[in-house]
């Protein structure tokens, strides 16, 4: 059943796994692992991300849970060891128009530029388009987060535009938000490209 086609039935938490990476519903049990992942590179010091400081992780998880059903957060976990690598979410879920976004995504420094993000995107997009019945999937990032913009564009997402003076950064400045999207009709080609990229990483 395409869950987004039935707004009365909210999206339910689900566990997804591929290539040694598991996405499981984020909960308080992931707090210590998330603190360790954030500490790998002191990610909270980066101006263009919203990674929580170690003492804020419990509140970060609680906020994610409070945002349901508009947000469904996942812990990104190494399936073999159980180590938490980072987190990602479905958010701004709008069942009436079969739209949702992927965001709130970050990984410990040692797992950046690895197969982890590509695997997570393949898992989340496959579930969104093929199980939830999404018509459109959005992604967004800070206008100064050029690495994130490049990564989104490598996925094959189309740039929709820029929302100016849109959101507050941790340093008190207000960012412009760059918006991207992928339509359901574009998914088969993007899926093939993601699988190709993972094959280059040696994952099959």
From TrEMBL:
The keyword Calcium does not apply. Keywords: Transferase. This is GNAT family N-acetyltransferase. It comes from Rugamonas rivuli. GO terms for molecular function: acyltransferase activity, transferring groups other than amino-acyl groups. The keyword Transmembrane does not apply. Residues 22-158 form the N-acetyltransferase domain. InterPro entries: Acyl_CoA_acyltransferase (IPR016181), GNAT_dom (IPR000182).
């Amino acid at each position: 059943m395409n869950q987004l086609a039935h707004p009365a039935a909210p999206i339910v938490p689900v566990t997804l796994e591929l290539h040694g990476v598991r996405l499981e519903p984020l909960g308080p049990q992931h707090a210590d692992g998330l603190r360790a992942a954030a500490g790998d590179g002191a990610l909270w010091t980066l101006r263009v991300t919203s990674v929580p400081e170690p003492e804020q992780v419990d509140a970060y998880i609680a906020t994610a849970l409070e945002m349901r059903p508009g947000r469904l957060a996942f812990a990104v976990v190494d399936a073999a060891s159980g180590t938490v690598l980072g987190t990602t979410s479905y958010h701004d879920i709008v069942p009436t128009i079969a739209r949702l976004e992927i965001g709130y995504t970050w990984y410990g420094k040692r797992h950046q530029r690895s197969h982890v993000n590509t695997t997570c995107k393949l898992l989340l997009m496959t579930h969104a388009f093929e199980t939830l019945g999404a018509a459109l999937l959005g992604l967004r990032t800070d206008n100064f987060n050029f690495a994130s913009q490049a990564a989104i564009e490598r996925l094959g997402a189309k740039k929709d535009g820029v929302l100016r003076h849109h959101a507050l950064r941790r340093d008190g400045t207000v960012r412009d938000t760059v918006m991207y999207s992928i339509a359901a009709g574009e998914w088969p080609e993007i899926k093939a490209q993601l699988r190709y990229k993972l094959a280059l990483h040696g994952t099959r």
